[in-house]
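Note to self: keep these together.
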Amino acid sequence: MQDARLCLDGTARWVEGRYCPTPLQEERPYWEQYFELVKVQNAHDRERCRDLNGSEPWACENCDCTERLEHKLATLSDPFLKTLRGGWCSHNGRAICESPS
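Structure:
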């Protein structure tokens, strides 16, 4: 969440690199307690993933495949945590969140 950004439409966006075949497979129950997950998607081309195709096990550890997306998100708006510390943004009492990872 340190790199999450609050967008103008009220959603929060962030990128997470994980080894799970399904984005947020393990974290989803936790996040859903606090956020409405509007959209969850892979942040990189899974076909080119060296870990998934077997060419380099655990390649995600030092992979930079989401670097461009992370840089783009960093320029969108203020950091999500900074905004939360300054005041809560919500819709129907729940935080609005979107994750492109």
